[in-house]
Amino acid sequence: MNYPVAEQQFAAPAAPAPSFIGQGTAVEQSRAVAEVQAAVIVARQFPRNEEAATRKMRSAFRQQSLAARSFFRFNRGDGNVTGETIQFAKELARCWGNIHHGLNELRRDDAAGESEMQAWAWDLESNERASTTFVVPHARFTKTSGRKPLEDPRDVYENNTNNGARRLREMIFTVLPDWYREEAKEVANHTLQNGPGDKPLAQRIADAVTAFENIGVTVQQLEENRGRPTEKWLNLDVAQLQIVYQSINRGEVTIDEEFPQQRVTVAEITQQHAEGTTQPTSQPEQHAPAAEGTTEWPAARQPGSGATA
Question: Which candidate, 292, 284, 264, places its Cα nearest to that of 217?
């Protein structure tokens, strides 16, 4: 078919097709098609029981370790951003049943410094599918040094995975009922606020203080963050501190952002020196590592380390 001159000028070039498809590739393509067909047939033959799925969800989010990994928090501008994590979304999909989801790297361009990714989720029963395609720059952005290009393949992989996890989470939420997600949030929040049934509040507060001391956060900083001394903390205070701790552990927020150090001006230093009240700088106290087997307050990575997949 001959296009007019104007259409020929703007016609998109044909995408190059592979000249040869190996036997292994052909077998893999056939296997993938058969696997999808089998999954759809099984989903139709064994539909989900929504009441059983709800019971499974409630039982799962009553576990303290899962509830602690269900929420994130980080600073943006003058406020905090909070929400549910990818672990929360994957657990919901597992309990709901008959849902497939995934994250695919479609193309990696090292010359341009970017990767094209796709996140998707598919309810095999209702045939509802959500997908999004996006581009991830091979760079890490920080407040202090700005844009830092990534060249190491592992850094690129982890950056792609971390960016893709947020899109995958939203795709899973798209195919799940809103009421199911909201009830899961209530159960997880209730678990965080009340803590394990066999551990009193005083012990939970002591565990929280010890965990934060192990990463260099003092009791005074914790009390300033909560606005009251430790003896007046409630279950809600411990729960919110646990979310902060997990966010620091995942690299979503830094210790300095959550617990800013008190700034001393030049005038104050000069005045202290004139009055003879300047104290020598003390070395930071070394703390013992967290006790093994602790699931409520796992050992955090060193401040400044990025989140890993």
Answer: 284
